[in-house]
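Hi there,

I know you've been waiting on this one. I reran it after we fixed the sequence typo, so this is the corrected version. Both the input and the resulting structure follow.
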Amino acid sequence: MNREELAQHIDDLLDGELTESEFLRLEAELHVNPEARRAYYERLQLHTSLLAEASESVGRPEEKALTLPRPKSYLPWFAAAAAVVAFLAGGLGWQIGKSGDVGVATVPEEEPVAQGFAVIGEQSDAVWENDSSLGHGDLLPSGPLKLAAGIVQIDFFSGVTAIIEGDAEFEILSDMEMLVNKGRLRATVPEPAQGFQIRTSTGNLIDLGTEFALTVTPDHADMHVLNGEIEWHPVDKPMRRLIDGESLRWTASGNGLSAPADSEVINVFDLKQHLSARRSEKRVEWESHVETMKSDPRVLVHFPMKDGNHGQRELINEGRSGKDGTIVRAQPAADRWGESEAALDFSPTGSRVRLDVPDKHRSLTFHCWARIDSLDRWYNSLFLTDGHELH
C-alpha cells in the first residue's frame, strides 16, 4: 500500500466511509508496518483536534473521548466476551488491589509488531519443521515455512481460509498472496478477498471469489475449481480461465493437461470430523478440571453457566456461599464448545453480573474463561467491587 492510498484509507475510516475490503487491507497494513501506524496516529490526532476546535466554535464543550467510526458494511469491531465458567475463591494467591493504589494506563514506547499476515485457525497432528512451538491462534512468521506432516487451517487477515496438508513448503507474502513450492491445499475466498493469489514455480493462480484446491509438486501444479472461478497465469503462456467443476494439470514443461480426479483434493469433511473429535477430548479434560476445582473447600462462588434461568436473569451459583448472581443486560450466547446459551455476551453497554461474596478476605482469586475481543477503554476490568470508583 503506497503513501497516498494509506492516507486515503485512514481518512475514509475516520469519516466512516471505509468499505469492508478496504478495512481488511488497512488492518493488515497497520499490523505489519510501523510507518503506517505512525501515520494513523498523526491523522487521528489531527482529526481529534479539528473536532475539538469545531466544538468550541459553536459553543459546545470539547468531547473528552473520541469514538472511532465503523467501516461501512463491516461487522461490528467489538464482539462479545463470552465467559464459560467462573470461579471465585479465597486465599488462592491472586490479590486484587495492592496498597489501595490505582493503576495508571500508560502507552508503551515500543509496541509489538505483528510480523505476518495470517494466523493458525486449527491444526491436526501438525509437525512444523521451522518452528515446533506454532499452535492455535499463533501468527505465522514471515519467511519460508515447512509443514512436515499433519493438516493446518490458516486464516488470512483478508478473510481467506486455506487448509494445507503436509508435506508442504510455502510462504505467506501478504494477506492477499502466498507462495507454494510443494504441498496440497484447499482455499475458500470470500467476496471481499477476490484477487487472492497463489504463486508457484509454473505460474500464478488468481482467485475470483470461490473455493478451489491446488496440489503443487516440482513437476506440475494440479488445480480443481470446487465452486466459482479462477484464473491460471502460466509462465510465458496465455492465461487460462477455469470455472465450476473444471480441473487442470500444468506441467513444468509448460503443457496443460487434464488433472486427476477429485481424489487429490483435501477432504475437508474428514478434517472437520477429526478436529471435532479433538475438541471433544479437550472438553472432557476441561470438565474434569472444573469438577476438581469445585471440590476445593476454598471455592466460595461457582457459576458453571449452565442450567441457569436466564429468563429470570439469574445465574445459578454452585459454590458454598449459596447465593445466585443477577444478570444485568448481558445476553445468553454460545460457549467455546458451541453449546447455545451456555455463556454470556457482555458487549451491551453496562452488562455485568452482580454477586455477593460472603465474609471478609485478604485476597481473592477470580478464575474464568473469557474471550476478549477488544480493550477499547483506558481502564478495563473483569471483576470489580462496589464503591471501586471512590478509590
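Quick highlight: The longest helix spans residues 268-294.

Best,
R. S.
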